[in-house]
Amino acid sequence: MVSDKVLLEVKHLQKSFGDKTIFKDLSLTVRQGEVIVLVGPSGCGKSTFLRCLNGLEDYEHGEVFLDGKAIPGEQKSWYQVRQKIGMVFQSYDLFPHMTVLDNILLGPLKVQKRTKEEVLQQAQNLLERVGLWDRRNDYPSQLSGGQKQRIAIVRALCMNPEIMLFDEVTASLDPEMVREVLDVMLELAKAGMTMIIVTHEMNFAKAVADRVIFLDDGGIVEENTAEQFFTTPKTERAKKFLDIFNFKE
């Protein structure tokens, strides 16, 4: 259920790499419980935008507010922000020398200083939820790509974030593994998790999004509900984009 509370607000964000402008004046508001999907051609800044929200990329101008409080860019201790803004990457980023369970427990125990009993119970609940509790003592090399990605999602959730960012999390998976990861994300959406998702899975985007943001040429070209974006897009640029992806209702 999407609430009226604004959880994340981005104002006039500007980001460049050398002479190349990624986005010029990007503003976006995210309400608690809302699922926003970012779509657009490769190189339009979708992943860079997520990385700016999580402190992995600096930006030249603009402001980001979480729970009404400004995140003051370079002066901020980003590890505190990342506890509230979780992120899952395309590449999993699991520690190969640690078991599944140790990968999950590391952040809550070392960063948040929570008790092992509490974190272990949460990890068990989440792993059971994604069907992987029986793999808790395995190492990443023993898991499929889809299993690794589900573990990466559980690891992020175990930090109790207020919002989750997903950056093309199915892009490196074999087709038969994509569904198991998308199903987990659909369950999170139903449970009310606030999410910003970058994906090229158009049917999934239509199913999960409360709002679709179409990025191109340094800014937001179109912003619409999922139903309207995929059935009656307002801009010719969005229509051409959907044609390229051969999206079918």
Describe the 3D structure.
The protein is α/β, with parallel strands linked by helices. Helices cover 37% and strands 25% of the residues. It has 9 helices and 10 strands. The strands form 2 sheets. It has a 6-stranded mixed sheet, sandwiched between helices. It is globular, with a radius of gyration of 18 Å. It starts with 5 loop residues before the first strand and ends in a 5-residue tail after the last helix. The model has no long low-confidence stretch (mean pLDDT 91).
In a nutshell, what does this entry contain?
With 249 residues, the protein is of the alpha/beta class. It has helices at residues 46-53, 78-84, 100-110, 116-129, 145-157, 175-190, 202-208, 226-231, 236-244, and strands at residues 6-17, 20-31, 35-39, 61-66, 69-70, 85-88, 163-167, 194-198, 211-216, 219-224. A hairpin with a 2-residue loop joins strand 9 and strand 10.
Q: Top keywords for this entry?
A:
9 helices, alpha/beta, 25% strand, 249 residues, 4-stranded antiparallel β-sheet, single chain, 6-stranded mixed β-sheet
Measure the end-to-end span. 24 Å
Shape call: globular
Name the average pLDDT: 91
User: Strand pairing plus helix content: what structural class?
Assistant: alpha/beta
What string gives the helices and strands in order? Answer: EEEHEEHEHHHEHEHEEHH
Identify low-pLDDT runs: none
Largest sheet: 6 strands, mixed
